[in-house]
Amino acid sequence: MQVDSKEIKDFSPDINIDVSSIFGMKKKMKVQGFKEKSALVPTIDENYIFDEETTTSILVGFKFNKKVLIQGLHGTGKSSHIEQVAARLNWPCLRINLDGHISRFDLLGKDSIVLKDNKQVTTFKEGLLPWAIQNPVALVLDEYDAGRPDVMFVIQRILEVEGKLTLLDQNKVITPHPFFRIFGTCNTLGLGDNTGLYSGTQNLNQGQLDRWNIFSTLNFIEPDIEKKIIEGKLGKNKSKISDKLTSMIRLANLIRQAFSSSDLSVTMSPRTCILWAENFIIFGNLEKAFKLTFLNKCEMNDKKIIIELYQRCFGKEIE
Amino acid sequence: MTIYENENAAKIISRNKIKLAVKEKEFISNARNKFLDEFIKFENKTVFEKGWYDFFSLKIRYIDEKLLFQYMPDNTISKTFYKILLETRSLSIGFSNFTGCKMNIESVFNEIKKEVYKDSKNNEEFFFEFFLSKFQSKKTKNSKFFKNFPMISDNQIELLKNNLDNQQKFNELAKRIASLFKKEEIKEDNQNNISKNTNQKSKSPNKEKKRIPLNKERKKKKKDIQDLENLNQSTENNQIEVSNKYKIFTKEFDVAKNAQKLVNSDELNDLRKKFDEECKDYTKLINELAKKLKKLLLAFDSTAWEFSQDEGSFDGSRFAAFIANNNNSSIYKLEKKNIEKNTIVSLLMDNSGSMRGKPIITSALTSEILTHTLEKCNVNVEILGFTTNEWKGGKSKKKWEGFERPSKPGRLNDLLHIIYKDADAAWSLSKKNLGLVLKDGLLKENIDGEALIWASSRLKRRNEKKKILIVISDGAPVDDSTLSVNSPGILENHLREVVSEIEQEGKINLVAIGIGHDVSKYYKKAFTIDSPDKLGDIIIENLAKNLR
User: Is A9 exposed, middle or buried, given 0-12, 13-18 or 19+ CB atoms closer than 10 A?
Assistant: First the structure.
């Protein structure tokens, strides 16, 4: 780990933060946070809009040391939710992408060659996991359902309540830092992929899913909230698009509804909506921006239907 | 612009309340109660303009079914007006939300109104128009309205308009207004409705009958024969078992040919064109099937690494371990694929006369889509068909007659086994072969047992690890020529024998699909579907299980 790990280790939460004022939530709750910003604390996105339910579960995770897994379709902002909450608490945050190529060596540590007195020596170097556990860090496991089964069993140990980690290669037992927190995000429900959307996802071990304390889902964003999110992302440019935004989100919701009843094989994620709006600002033409951000990735049959839906929402034909 | 897109758009806009029309070009509503249905017969016009689709989908988009039934008035005439009020609400909301829909509808609005209210007697059209413009806050003359509908007060209309966003309140108010309509016409109206309904209902089966008279007769024939067999079996059960060893009179005239050799290339091309023509009616089916298959394949196609291998690509994270100890040889990784690609799928189609029409076309179509997609992921597909060369025994029978008709000669007909696509042949080369199924007079009798032997022996010669044989048929084995001179169960019993032999051997995964015919009495793994439309789903479901 390149970050000065000693420094982070010395940090501990020193203030109580009133949640309702910072996240604009109705619920009254106080969560510990850090007064000072250390390295690894994500930058704050001032315009971020928090989803009440998801934010609450993340905050509960921080406050009561609960393991929180967030499931949701792509582009609904699962990871950024955790990051933004952490940013406002000044909590150091570490994201690991659990793709199919990560092996347990990468996580736990491996022998590596270092120069010592001008000689090559092999020494054991700890991986990210042992380091994270010993620090006040929020560990975010992205794409939790893409992880390979044998890797998942490494994680299983730290999901236990008092999750001590044994490093066999070093004959060492690591006790977690009291302010170590763990979060996960995934696209599927851990039962493999039925939609064909998420190739590369695995069936999760149900015993392991059981060890997560809170299972939160973030599949749908209210149109009004989505509008706010997009406006937030556009910043000062939002006035250029405000009259079209409602129709854009309406079209996105039609596409999403068609996807869930399997009339279309693609869906339009909130991220795509943001990109569409951003591209509109660049190109100045709504149809062209739509074509470039979304329509061109659709296959022929879907395209035809989407073109129809576009016409219904905007009254204009796409050529 | 085709019906396909418009229908799909209509379904999506109505929030799935409108189901897709299948073949008959009518909307079929999904609503729990028939109340939301508005059947419009698409008789005169084959392609409707967008506005029609939008009108029917938009006017039910914002109607919540639960609230609809909660406030439903009791008598027919009130129901009509209640419905109009709810629909105008939905339409006016829709107009403000979907600019495009509004444009589309307005361009054909007069036609629509004329068609929808052509049978109305109580000034419904005026009522509808009045409220539609009222809800859209357009200027309207109230005086004419009150002349026509004196029982409704100005206050009520305003109240209604102010509650457009509150569906519950709106429905409640709408019920109150609708209940003011109580007249003697109720009875008459009722009768009208009934006669209308029955008209519609009786319409579609009539068409069916006309289209496939041959099918029905053939099926009936088969059934008769089966009944007769059952009767015979029960009386002379023992006798049959002794004398029923399957025999073949002669194999001399049997043919197993590639489709290309059965007709000349020009004719085949023409047939293929005809086939494509027919397929146009099934665009929806094809699209859905292709979509599902694609999803299925994507779901399979996940790859992962297998670490600690003795060979493969080098695993960088093990480099240090290797330097430290040269004997440490498990430093490679291998790509692991989820799908078992060492697979062959053989589709055996019953090419008997009763398959003519929709069944054979959908079977061929399904095979085509399957082959097309599976080829992409290196799964070999073989498409075979079986029938006979002649109706009445053909050359075999003549030979038998020449031999002074020995009793119980066994199978007495010339088999015709067709290879539409060999497992090794590329799809592009065998594509036109499938057109053959449309050749007049090709489809005749079906002798299932021997066809199964043939197909399975072809499979056994293959090197693939996994072998799947899918039989698509629509009836019991029938050959009049054979059955008339042998014990009646001969073909059926043989089929059973062959099936149990293949099943016991266990080398081939045998699946049977019966179109409108229960095949479970012959096969262990059997599926019955009532319509050829479901063929694709069943096959995909099976492949999903077997390919893993």
Answer: middle
The tokens describing A282, both together, are 């660049």
Q: Would B97 be classed as within a structural domain? A: yes
Contacts with B4 (C-beta within 8 Å, 6 or more apart), sequence order: A304, B283, B284, B287
Q: Residue B423 sits in a domain of what CATH number?
A: 3.40.50.410
At residue B196, the pLDDT reads 42
Cβ neighbours of residue A141 under 8 Å, at least 6 residues apart? Answer: A96, A98, A147, A155, A182, A183, A184, A185
**Residue A317 phi, psi dihedral angles, 5° rounding:** -85, 140
Q: What are phi and psi of A167, to 5 degrees?
A: -100, 105
Q: B9 vs A309: CB contact, 8 Å cut-off?
A: yes
Give me the residue from A148, A195, A316 closest to B295, CB to CB.
A195
pLDDT tens column, A153-194: 888 878 876 777 887 777 888 888 889 999 999 988 776 666
Question: Has residue B316 been placed in a domain?
Answer: no
Q: B295, B374, B13, B373: which is closest to A262 by C-alpha?
A: B295
Q: How many angstroms separate the CA atoms of B352 and B359, rounded?
A: 11
SS3 content of chain A, % helix, strand, coil (to 5): 45, 20, 35
- Residue B56, domain extent: 3-162
Residue with tokens 């501990």: A12
Q: Is A318 on the interface with B (CB under 8 A)?
A: no
The pLDDT tens digits of the residues spanning A241-276 come to 888 899 999 999 999 888 877 778 888 988 899 999
* B246-272 pLDDT tens trace: 888 888 888 888 888 888 888 888 888
Distance CA A74, CA A186 (A): 9
Q: Quote the number of domains for chain B.
A: 2
Q: Which of B142, B162, B182 is the last residue in one of the domains?
A: B162
**Contact between B100 and A193 using a beta-carbon 8 Å cutoff:** no
- Rounded Cα–Cα distance for residues A17 and A85 (Å): 12
CB-neighbour burial class of residue B84 (10 A; exposed 0-12, middle 13-18, buried 19+): buried
Which pTM does this prediction carry? 0.60
Other beta carbons less than 10 A from residue B493's beta carbon: 20
With a pLDDT cut of 70, the percent of chain A lying above it is 94
Inside any domain, residue B286: no
Give the tens place of pLDDT for each residue, A192-208: 666 667 766 777 777 88
Mean pLDDT in residue range B216-238: 44
- Between positions 274 and 303 of B, the ones with CB within 8 A of A are 287, 290-291, 294-299, 301-303
Give me the mean pLDDT over the A54-70 stretch.
Answer: 92
CA B282 to chain A, closest CA, distance in angstroms equals 14
What gap in Å lies between CA A140 and CA A176, rounded to an integer?
16
In a domain, B354, yes or no: yes
CA-CA distance, B20 to B3, in Å (whole number)?
10
Give the pLDDT of residue B341.
60
Q: What's the rounded Cα separation, in Å, for the pair B374 and B378?
A: 6
Q: Is the pLDDT of residue B426 over 60?
A: yes
Residue of chain B nearest A125, judged by CA positions: B320
- Specify the pLDDT at position B538: 79
